[in-house]
């Protein structure tokens, strides 16, 4: 059964009640050239592509996963991390915990090799970069040449302010006041 759900002008195809981003129970059933096939909620088959799997999987293993896409040919693409930006929140917490465990610094950057990122965080480099960008925008981390540092100081920015004090950093168009 295929249904079309129109939200915000976009059509999303659904099959047998499955929809993109839905959390499902997976049973790894076989390894293929493309990755792994898995039984979804005991009723349907789907595929986990090997370039999106960042942890060891075994035939017969039960694991939670997500519907990445229900394709036009009615096949189902799967993933192990929540797709899109919903994954970023969970990974942000994991990343911040890891930073705190490492005394506030991790020697990994957006230039690190994908395998290093996958080994440390179990995610793709693309997802890692989205997460880092999100944390940086929230001013929770500082990006350094050799890694990422947890920010401990809160900053308040006043655009165009021209004051001079030892507790200020002047950057760009404004002044950043450091709170201690």
Give a verbal description of the structure.
By secondary structure, this protein is of the alpha+beta class. The protein has two domains: 2-79, Nucleic acid-binding proteins (OB fold (Dihydrolipoamide Acetyltransferase, E2P)), CATH 2.40.50.140; 86-153, Winged helix-like DNA-binding domain superfamily/Winged helix DNA-binding domain (Arc Repressor Mutant, subunit A, Orthogonal Bundle), CATH 1.10.10.10. The protein contains three helices and 13 strands, in the order E-E-E-E-E-E-E-H-E-H-H-E-E-E-E-E. The protein has helices spanning 86-101, 114-121, 125-137; strands spanning 2-7, 10-15, 23-31, 35-40, 44-49, 62-70, 76-79, 105-106, 141-144, 147-150, 154-159, 168-171, 174-179. A five-stranded mixed barrel has the order 3-4-5-7-6. A three-stranded antiparallel beta sheet has the order 8-10-9. A three-stranded antiparallel beta sheet has the order 11-13-12, with no helix packed on it. Strand 9 and strand 10 form a beta hairpin. The longest helix has 16 residues, at 86-101. The protein is elongated. Residues 1-15 and 161-180 have low confidence and may be disordered.
Percent in helix: 10-25%
Shape label:
elongated
Name of the CATH homologous superfamily of the largest domain: Nucleic acid-binding proteins
In CATH's first tier, which class of the largest domain applies? Answer: Mainly Beta
Attribute tags:
disordered C terminus, OB fold (Dihydrolipoamide Acetyltransferase, E2P), disordered N terminus, 3-stranded antiparallel β-sheet, Arc Repressor Mutant, subunit A, alpha+beta, 13 strands, 21% helix, single chain, 180 residues, 5-stranded mixed barrel
């Amino acid at each position: 059964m295929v249904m079309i759900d129109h939200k915000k002008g976009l059509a999303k195809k659904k099959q047998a009640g499955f929809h993109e981003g839905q959390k499902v129970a997976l049973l790894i059933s076989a390894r293929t050239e493309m990755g792994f096939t898995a039984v979804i909620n005991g009723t349907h088959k789907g595929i986990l592509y090997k370039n999106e799997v960042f942890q060891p999987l075994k035939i017969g293993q039960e694991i939670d996963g997500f519907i990445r896409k229900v394709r036009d040919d009615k096949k189902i693409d799967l993933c192990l991390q929540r797709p899109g930006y919903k994954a970023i929140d969970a990974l942000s917490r994991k990343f911040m915990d890891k930073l705190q465990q490492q005394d506030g610094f991790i020697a990994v950057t957006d230039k690190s090799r994908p395998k290093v990122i996958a080994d440390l965080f179990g995610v793709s480099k693309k997802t890692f970069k989205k997460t880092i960008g999100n944390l940086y925008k929230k001013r929770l981390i500082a990006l350094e040449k050799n890694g990422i540092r947890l920010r401990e100081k809160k900053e308040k920015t006043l655009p165009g302010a021209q004051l001079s004090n030892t507790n200020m950093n002047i950057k760009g168009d404004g002044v950043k006041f450091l709170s201690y």
